[in-house]
Amino acid sequence: MKSMRFVVIGLGHIGSRHAETLRMHPEAEWVASVDPVSDKAASGIPHFESIEDFLSSGIGCDVASIASPNGLHAEQAIQAMKAGLHVIVEKPMALSAADVQFMIQVSEQTGKSLIGVMQNRYSAPSQYVKSLLDQGALGNLYRVQVDCFWNRDERYYSGHAWHGSAELDGGVLFTQFSHFVDMLHWLLGPLQPFWAESSNHNHQGITPFDDSGSIAFAFGNTGRGSFRYSTSVPHQNFESTLSLIGERGTIKLGGQYMNQVQYVNIDGQTTTPELPEVPANDYGLYKGSAANHHHLIQNALDHLLRGAPITTPAQDGLAVVEFIEKAHALAHSS
Questions:
Q1: The whole model's pTM is what?
Q2: pLDDT tens for each residue of 108-134
Q3: Fewer CB within 10 A of the terminal residue: the chain, N end or C end?
């Protein structure tokens, strides 16, 4: 059986998820890791403290799986593609739209695939709502509301040099909530933010960016939506919800990670489908997005080995970064 050889760049919580997924897949071979912290090396896997050291090692490789701090994604992805590797890059693809555009340009110039990581799309509730919208089950969509209220306090930011850094983290919309921006883009199509506000409630002296805010956006011909977010919830994450109101019905996804179908009423008929609930990634004190990286890796392998379409293309990652950049600009100008 043909397989693809992977180097994992960044061995934090997410990078370790990539590595274990690759280790268990029959069509993938994890050949090396890159992380400046040497004690993150896995037994039996060659480990390097820089991409340069890895590329000069002569180890054969096909794909770079990048799970380093956000602010390093663009530089490392470009370096890998220019070295002849396909690239899978964690969310956000970069911290500026200009960087993502350059990444896409290099992908086109080198002929190397550039794949974003937005694994929440693979959750059963997400797939369920997507299928209903693709069928036009709600008719014309009127209103969409997203509420993401999480906890990220000093426990999260202490002990991690890049957490809370303007250059490497970029802010809560990039690090905590870009998955949900992607969900909106995936479900609704292009989004046009037209108003935003933000504030810092309890992270003064911890982060240089605001911890909470609201964004109003347009979609489709007449649709309107709002996105409210905060990392100021005490103790633990509270909720991540999505409500859609259309001419024929209403849908609500809820739970801490938008991982439950809580309400469906279409044409006056109320149903609650029984769907598998995927647990969130568990990072000790904190939990995050859905543990669906195996679906992402499978799609990447299907694409690289069999020519299947990429389900999380780089252009979608660009749309997410453009939305966040626009929201930041609107908030700071209000």
A1: 0.95
A2: 999 999 999 999 999 999 999 999 999
A3: N
